[in-house]
Amino acid sequence: MLNPERAYNDAVRVLRSLEAAGYSARLAGGCVRDRLLGLAPADYDVATDALPDVVLQHFRTEERSTIPTGIDHGTITVVMPSGPIEVTTLRKDVETDGRHAQVAFGTSFQDDAKRRDFTINAMFEDADGRVYDDVGGQDDLKAGVLRFVGAAQERIKEDYLRILRLFRFWAKLGFTPVEGTLEAIAAERGGLSRVSQERISAELLRLLGAPYASDALAAMHSTGVWEVVLPELQGAASLPEANLMQTWRDHLATPHRGVAILGGICLRFAHLNAAGLLRLAERLRLSNLDGKRLAFFAQGAELLKVSAFKQTADLLDLVDRCEQAGGADAWTQIYAPIWNADAGLKAATLAIDQAELKHGHLRRAKLPLSGRDLSKALGMATGPEMGQVLEALKRSYRNGEWRSAEEGLGVARALLGKGA
């Protein structure tokens, strides 16, 4: 985990290093915003009037590890002890098409601020902690509002992804857009079709997992953005209310919140089946693992509805299925929080929770008997019969019917005597 003090000190070292070489350099964008809000920035970005090649050579001279991450666009990554810091040459837009911008390197922090999306993201801070704000970002932070730098529609037309970025910051900070912003978004929402699906999906998943997502989703619905981004959910009668979203979020693991909440919305409000969820995952260009995770929300819910959980092993088997679909701890970190909030599934999820709490160590333990043991002690040959016996042994072990290898062999003999 990023150490806040070390990360800030490393960022200041980068600033002072560039200043000592005769260049201007300041912290830029989100890290300044977060520091003013009293939050620990997730990362630090630096803006400088030094050209990219100069930045690269300067830090290599200092024997710092450097990566030409986006050198054509002015960005060099400097690897500091606390983590990577992106150093970007000041820029101004020459031409934009709603997806990409042609930029020219510059020397003006004011010009660089004017090309940024929101006032709260267009401030700079020097190595002494002095904040430079030419767009009213500090006032908007105090007021808790989101305001595009300049005219909203012009900013949106430069990069249509800014529509989703606005909703993500709303979801993250609870800030609301100033008057006229939602009207501009509604008018320009069709431009999102020009943005790559990968960029849209990344913003969407981050948005869904944020603290104030329900308010942002309601506004996305009222502006028509929801239907553009997730047309598969147009048939949903409603969207989750704030208390449900908060319940989900409180019990989900942070890395999986976006996918899990998307699964919850699709399952509970749009009633998509597993095939529909797989198609959605493919269109959203999610990873193969996230696609499996998403589809299992429907598959697992069906199992919860129709399965007769007569034994502990039945309950623990479903936890296995969750982990096969979603990875380690998927039951507690991804699926159970969503299913447990559904009245029709709650009884089954609570039963599984109890079984996992009391007997999960049996599920996770290595079976004391192997196929080799069965072959040596009972003369069994490898094949379907052995597979059936091992599966039956696993279930009876999870039910607490035996513990030691000797006891297990007794169970195996009984199974073979019954024609298992």
List strands and helices in order, with pairings.
Layout: H1 4-20, E1 25-28, H2 30-36, E2 45-48, H3 52-61, E3 65-70, E4 75-80, E5 83-89, E6 91-96, E7 101-105, H4 109-114, E8 124-125, E9 131-132, H5 137-143, E10 145-146, H6 152-158, H7 162-173, E11 176-177, H8 181-188, H9 197-208, H10 213-223, H11 225-229, H12 242-251, H13 257-268, H14 274-284, H15 288-306, H16 312-326, H17 330-340, H18 346-364, H19 371-378, H20 384-398, H21 405-417
Parallel strand pairs: 2-5, 10-11
Antiparallel strand pairs: 1-2, 1-8, 3-4, 4-5, 6-7, 8-9
Helix pairs in contact: 6-8, 7-9, 7-10, 9-13, 12-17, 13-15, 13-17, 14-15, 15-16, 16-17, 16-18, 16-20, 17-18, 20-21
Per CATH, the superfamily of the domain at 1-143 is Beta Polymerase, domain 2
- The count of β-strands is 11
Q: Order of strands in the sheet with the most strands?
A: 3-4-5-2-1-8-9
Mean pLDDT: 93
Shape: elongated
Radius of gyration: 27 Å
Question: What's this entry about, in short?
Answer:
The protein has helices at 4-20, 30-36, 52-61, 109-114, 137-143, 152-158, 162-173, 181-188, 197-208, 213-223, 225-229, 242-251, 257-268, 274-284, 288-306, 312-326, 330-340, 346-364, 371-378, 384-398, 405-417; strands spanning 25-28, 45-48, 65-70, 75-80, 83-89, 91-96, 101-105, 124-125, 131-132, 145-146, 176-177. The protein has 420 residues and is of the alpha+beta class. The strands form 3 sheets. A 7-stranded mixed β-sheet has the order 3-4-5-2-1-8-9. A two-stranded antiparallel ribbon has the order 6-7. Strands 10-11 form a two-stranded parallel ribbon.
